[in-house]
Amino acid sequence: MASLKTTIIRGGLETLYFSGANVFMRPFVHGVGVILTLHHVRPERPEAFQPNRLLEITPKFLEQVVRYLRRRDLDIVSLDEVYRRLVEQDFARRFVCITIDDGYRDTLQYAYPILKRYEAPFAVYIPTSFPDRLGELWWLALEAVVARNSRVTLLLGGGEQGFDCATVTEKRDLFDQLYSYLRSLPTEEQLRVFVRDLSARYHVDIAAFCTDLCMNWNELTTLAADPLVTIGAHTVNHVMLAKVPERMARSEMAMSRSVIEASLGKRPDHLSYPVGDKTSAGPREFKIAAELGFKTAVTTRPGVLFPEHRDHLMALPRISLNGEHQQLRYVRVLLSGSATALWNGFRKVDAA
After folding, report:
1. Global pTM?
2. Which among 222, 322, 325, 333 is most buried, taking Cβ atoms within 10 Å?
3. What CATH number should be reported for the domain whose range is 2-131+214-343?
């Protein structure tokens, strides 16, 4: 299923590029700016089974993108500058803002040197349980269970069901099924309990992912000391906020901000909703973020920025630099606004 989706998206991007439709549409749909999303920036891994590969790009590709942005008539700006331009309706020049979610160590190792070299400001959104070494990167635990076993037995529907996953194809199919099932669960707690039980059964240490992959507070202090870097809030436990009670959602946002301020001495003005799609953040979460006084809050709903986003600062769209689509021609199409315009039915704002 995921590979089919990847193929369809790639086909759409290729069609827009080689038909020239992206160039034709650009003046009508390119908006005033773009916020880019990244997660991991690290060298390619050799494993054939990488279901979370969409979340990582190579340092080489990041440098290609930044060089391309610098060659274009675009400003690379901070989140504070995005906020200022939207509020003041200052659109004399089109802009791009680079954001990186989750605070992985490769941000410091690989992304930061590149962005520093090109004097490109960027933001890093931190779920505070990750540097506290209490976080659960459940999507990586799920990947590890499937990767390390040739058969997985699950408790589903009141009984045990076994799934063969010896081949790469079987592993991909099983991961996609499990991921879809987990995302369909009505509450965050049900998802977490399922993954904890699965990890315990197959001896996967969930806590180790934080230690191995995420920056600690000392590393974040080093990063935050650079004026190019904005540290943003990303909740405490990286929960899908729409799937927790309102009181918990408010606490996750507020506490994340307080912990970052206490640990780094800087109070975050900007927020990223974990996962960030419609099932994870909606009008209730947008309202809470506004009441907490954040300047901006970003989703993962695809889109470019338009002047109308001044009235929807808690529901800003982003464009993902997807690890499955590491080609500059795809970046050109995405920056043109043509692909997301088609995706959104030519609606400029998606905040419902």
Report:
1. 0.96
2. 333
3. 3.20.20.370
